[in-house]
Each structure stands twice: as structure tokens, then as C-alpha cells.
From TrEMBL:
Lineage, broadest ranks: Bacteria, Pseudomonadati, Bacteroidota, Saprospiria, Saprospirales
Domain Prokaryotic-type class I peptide chain release factors, chain residue ranges per copy: 7-124
Region feature (Disordered): 1-26, 100-139
GO annotation, biological process: rescue of stalled ribosome
Protein name: Class I peptide chain release factor
Coiled-coil region(s): none
Family membership noted in the UniProt record: Belongs to the prokaryotic/mitochondrial release factor family.
InterPro entries linked: Pep_chain_release_fac_I, Pep_chain_release_fac_I_sf
GO molecular function: peptidyl-tRNA hydrolase activity; ribosome binding; translation release factor activity
TM helices/strands, residue ranges: none
Polar residues composition-biased segments: 15-26
């Protein structure tokens, strides 16, 4: 993954931010959305593109754009930097290989007879703890 190339390929969209900020919110477009086109990127090789497309499928639009939004700051520049950082973090975490899981041999499955016997013993123990209610005598 070539982060410098990816940063060059980013496109940005700005809009008015929501939330507090007084008149600044109503006048200035400080919300920044960083857009990254996964399929045509030169910053990712073909294998990396396939991995990103699979792992971030829910975050990639129909047009093939991966986006990250920032509207925390009151300035467009700092929101732009935060959006870039979010997008790069998304890509980096998607490209971390998942650890291989060890297969458990089938022979290690618990013995069902032994388990049933242990349950019966436990049941008897608990039944012995119950309070014995004497039968009512009738006149």
C-alpha cells in the first residue's frame, strides 16, 4: 500500500457541518468527506484491492467509492486532515491479515456417556439438598 499515492488520489467533498457552533455552522462548509476510488487506485495492488473490497464492502458505495467523514473541528483544514487519517486507518486495518485458526481434531470431542453420567451425579447432589416437606396428616 502506497499511502502517498493514495493521498494524491483522494477527492474531497465539503458541506455544512451539523451540531453546535453558532453562526459558524450556518455559514461555513467545514464538514469534509474524503473519497477514495478503490478499483482504479494505483496505490493498491490487485490483491490489496480485492481484500479491501471484500472487507469494506459495506462501506464502499455502488460507484466504488470508499469514504471517511470528519466534522469534529471548526476548520475545514483540520477536518480534511482527520478525514484523510480515518480513511488511511480504515485501509490499513482492512489489510491486516487475519490469523489462521487451528483445526481441532474430531477425536477431542467430549465423551457423551461420561457427560451424561456427570450430569446425573450433579442432579442427585442437588436433589439431596432440597428441603423435605413432611406430608400433611389428615384428621
Amino acid at each position: 500500500m502506497d499511502t502517498l499515492q493514495i493521498q494524491k488520489e483522494l477527492k474531497f467533498r465539503t458541506s455544512r457541518s451539523s451540531g453546535s457552533g453558532g453562526q459558524n455552522v450556518n455559514k461555513v462548509e467545514t464538514r469534509v468527506e474524503a473519497l477514495f476510488e478503490v478499483n482504479t487506485s494505483e496505490g493498491l495492488n490487485e490483491e490489496e484491492k480485492a481484500i479491501v473490497a471484500a472487507k469494506l464492502a459495506s462501506r464502499i458505495s455502488k460507484e466504488g467509492l470508499l469514504s471517511a467523514v470528519s466534522q469534529e473541528s471548526r476548520t475545514q483544514q483540520s477536518n480534511r486532515e482527520k478525514a484523510i487519517k480515518k480513511l488511511l486507518t480504515l485501509l490499513e486495518t482492512a489489510l491486516i491479515p487475519e490469523p489462521e485458526r487451528e483445526e481441532v481434531p474430531e477425536r477431542l470431542v467430549a465423551n457423551p456417556r461420561k457427560r451424561k453420567k456427570a450430569k446425573a451425579v450433579q442432579s442427585e447432589k442437588k436433589a439431596a439438598r432440597k428441603k423435605i416437606i413432611p406430608p400433611k396428616e389428615e384428621d
